[in-house]
Design goal:
Helix content: 10-25%
Strand order of the largest sheet: 22-23-24-25-26-30-31-32-33-34-35-38-39-40-41-42
Distance between the termini: 77 Å
Number of helices: 8
Oligomer: single chain
């Protein structure tokens, strides 16, 4: 027999002698608590099997949702404080409690206790009945006839004599044999145990989440502070750099009172260590913060959950819970998560979560991450590895971002936590704090509170001095370049981005508005022009036709609209204007008619997608020339009126990967084709864009084909990073015959630091099938460059 001892929250210890006595006599002691205790004494929980709680009435000025939120929080704290073997029930003694069960409330208890007057409505919980006070055994047994309850709780009369007689009679009934003898003839000063073997009920997804919340509360109660040590590596692509830019550092994460601060030590840019003021304070590019995380107690739950079955993570069986925004509750204009969580079937701890953000507005148009957790001590699971993949759409620049946080060790409740954090404040390390608006740098020497550095303003500007020289067989003399780049991530406080570069003979200006009127639409544009001319070489049957060579000077302008369609896919539509000035070279034959300057109006449509670190794009570019006329030699058939209109299209796929803090890799493959393309509308491999390592700019002009580019970078020491490249293309160039032709190139680069925080890079490439201006095979392209970011 199960015996409930009625107590008031906070006075459970007073009922301990009764619990011990019931247990000694063979009964199963439990508690019927008025009020919801925040916790129960270990002395008490060591004896009870079930706890039934009843809360106070809802205040008149409080909504059912707010009241249910408070009860969920209290019940979660209670479950976190007691043994997992203790079952928790809710005594729903008024009609008000029945309405609360509609607020996803039933999953926070194991069973619900209803009184005689309350109608039964299925909640998915086991239902018990609390009956009126019976005076005789037969009246008590009659209450078990109800068909909607699995258990019945009788409240014993206040008269101790009547209560003792009734309890003894009930004990005798339970202990009686199944024969027809009088059950009350069986005596004995004891409580008999009734043993039943029943199948266990599978937990619902809501119950799994409620128990996970209790596990989190239990862990939070025992963990006041954590110092986590590891490495943080960030990789992205930047114009002009030979390989992906990598920012790596050793980190220590200080977490206490729900505040996390990061100490970054040994900061390296492209594997090269920078010290003190030489460390560039780069802008922190993040997506918008999620309005409401999943799997937590919320005033209004905006997620829809589903149990996807079970899987084993490591050696731990887990429930797989998927989550997505609930379209009936969630505000579609705020960012939330969509993904899956792996929750341990025994402890209900989180072992892994994979999620991507929805409804992103801003330069980050796609963001997904995978977090793995490990058990650092019994019952405590902390983050071990976080892998974040994002797609950044900025001013004329689109790049994937890969961020990897790897935790090597954790110190829980360290006695010198405050002292070590203070030492980090005073050190030369870069310090960041996690705030509701995102990560922010901390300012040394200023304080928000005693002993705490102040949060710095946003770092929104990057200035770069760049210079160097290019040695290219298509350029008659080595081409020096020098320029200044300015990137503003919050231009004039408008939230827009602006990117400008001027390098003597080359200039570029680009802008981006990441959110138009706080919608998910973006607008961007760019323009560039080159003041100097370079060769446009002509080939026939693989031999250079010097008398048809020209000089070219291009310029370009474009504007576009972009909108994310889902968490992984974006759509882009834009207008492009290309202008190329064409002129005869010193070797051009007098009988060769120089084409008119090319003016091309075009549209461009593309779908861009990201998944698990892979980035893909499918695009189409229909275009039309303006003022185009016959050119070349009449007998050669170079000019075709049908090529006034043409179209280009293609598909590309790429992936950048952080292997470890010292090594990164990049892979890119693309296929491109078109209709009605001639010499001046075909694709070409360039020096800055659409590069093919080792091949001169505009040497190869093709109308269809594929290219693969790879890069591998490794920081060998504190003073040098080595980059390696392998590129290959299989394309159709009409100047080299009717079939596809292979162009393979290799290359390497060295990156080293110089004075005043400058990064120097020497890059070399060799094209096996490149043709020099003197007709020899095998071309080499050399580029020396230096960058100073401030």
């Amino acid at each position: 027999m199960e015996v409930f001892v009625r107590v008031t929250a906070g006075s459970e210890e007073a009922g301990l002698p009764s619990l011990v006595d019931i247990e000694r006599k063979g009964g199963r002691p439990s508690l019927l608590v008025s009020g919801i205790p925040a916790s129960l004494s270990g002395n008490v929980t060591g004896h009870v099997r079930r706890v039934v709680v009843s809360g106070s009435s809802r205040p008149i000025d409080q909504s059912d949702a707010a009241f249910a939120f408070g009860l969920k929080t209290s019940l979660t704290a209670l479950r976190a404080a007691v043994s997992p073997t203790i079952f928790i029930g809710l005594s729903a003694e008024t009609a008000q409690w029945q309405s609360l069960l509609s607020h996803d409330f039933a999953s926070y208890v194991d069973f619900v206790v209803l009184n005689d007057s309350m109608p039964f409505e299925s909640t998915g919980n086991e239902v018990w009945r609390l009956t009126s006070q019976p005076a005789k055994v037969r009246e008590a047994l009659a209450a078990t006839a109800t068909g909607d309850a699995t258990h019945v709780i009788w409240s014993l009369p206040a008269d101790p004599v009547v209560a003792a007689r009734l309890a003894t009679g009930l004990a005798r009934v339970i202990a009686a044999p199944t024969s027809g003898s009088d059950p009350q003839a069986q005596g004995g000063d004891r409580f008999a145990q009734e043993v039943q073997v029943v199948g266990s009920r599978a937990l619902t997804v809501e119950e799994i989440i409620a128990r996970h919340q209790a596990a989190i509360a239990r862990q939070s109660a025992s963990v006041q502070s954590v110092i986590a040590s590891g490495t943080l590596t960030l990789s992205f692509e930047a114009p002009g750099f030979p390989a992906p830019v990598t920012v790596s550092s050793g980190v220590a994460l200080y977490t206490s009172d729900r505040i996390t601060e990061i100490e970054q030590r040994d900061v390296r840019i492209n594997g090269v260590e920078f010290r003190g003021s030489a460390i560039p304070r780069l802008p922190i590019i993040e997506p918008e913060r999620v309005a409401s995380p999943p799997l937590v107690i919320a005033l209004t739950d905006v997620y829809r959950y589903h149990l996807d079955g079970r899987e084993t993570v490591g050696s731990t069986p887990c429930y797989v819970v998927s989550f997505q925004p609930d379209p009936t509750r969630a505000d579609k204009s705020v960012t939330l998560f969509r993904g899956k969580a792996w929750i341990a079937a025994d402890s209900f701890a989180m072992l892994k979560v994979s999620a991507r953000q929805t409804a992103l507005r801003g330069p980050i148009v796609a963001s997904e991450q995978v977090d793995d957790f490990r058990e650092v001590r019994p019952g405590v699971w902390l983050l071990a590895h976080s892998d974040v993949r994002q797609m950044y759409e900025g001013a004329a620049h689109r790049t994937p971002i890969h961020r990897v946080l790897a935790i090597d060790s954790d110190e829980i409740n360290s006695s010198d936590f405050s002292a070590r954090r203070q030492r980090a404040y005073r050190s030369a390390a870069v310090m960041l704090r996690d705030t509701p608006e995102g990560y922010r740098y901390l300012k040394k020497g200023t304080t928000d509170a005693p002993g705490t550095p102040a949060v710095a303003g946003r770092a929104d500007r990057v200035r770069t001095l760049a210079g160097g020289v290019i040695v290219d067989p298509n350029i008659s003399t080595p081409l020096p370049f020098a320029g200044f780049s300015y990137v503003d991530f919050d231009f004039l406080g408008s939230g827009s981005q602006m990117n400008a570069f001027f390098g003597g003979t080359y200039g570029q200006l680009a802008f981006s508005v990441p959110s138009i009127a706080r919608t998910r639409w973006q607008v961007g544009g760019q323009a560039f022009a080159i003041a100097s001319s370079y060769n446009d070489r002509s080939f026939g049957h693989g031999r250079e036709q010097y008398d048809q060579d020209l000089r070219q000077r291009p310029a370009h302008m474009s504007v576009w609209l972009l909108r994310p369609l889902s968490t992984r896919v974006s759509f882009r539509a834009g207008y492009e204007l290309d202008y190329t000035h064409l002129a005869a070279s010193t070797a051009t034959d007098a009988g060769f008619v120089v084409p008119a300057d090319q003016v091309v109006h075009g549209a461009r449509f593309s779908l861009d997608a990201q998944r698990a670190g892979w980035n893909a794009s499918v695009w189409w570019n229909p275009a039309r020339r303006s003022g185009w006329r016959a050119w070349g030699r009449t007998e050669s058939g170079d000019y075709d009126p049908s090529q006034l209109d043409f179209q280009r299209y293609g598909i590309s796929i790429a992936r950048a990967r952080v292997i470890n803090p010292r090594a990164v890799a990049h892979l890119e493959a693309a296929w491109m084709g078109g209709n009605d393309l001639d010499r001046f509308s075909r694709y070409s491999f360039g020096t800055f864009d659409n590069r093919l390592r080792g091949y001169p700019s505009a040497l190869i002009r093709y109308d269809r084909g594929a290219a693969v580019r790879t890069a591998m970078a490794y920081g060998m020491s504190r003073l040098i990073r080595v980059d390696g490249f392998f590129d290959s293309a299989e394309v159709h160039d009409p100047g080299f015959g009717s079939g596809l032709r292979n162009y393979t190139g290799v290359g390497g680069a060295l990156e080293v630091p110089a004075f005043f925080g400058t990064l120097l890079a020497v890059e070399w490439g060799y094209g096996f099938r490149g043709i020099n201006t003197n007709g020899t095979l095998g071309t080499q392209v050399l580029r020396l460059s230096g960058y100073k970011v401030f």
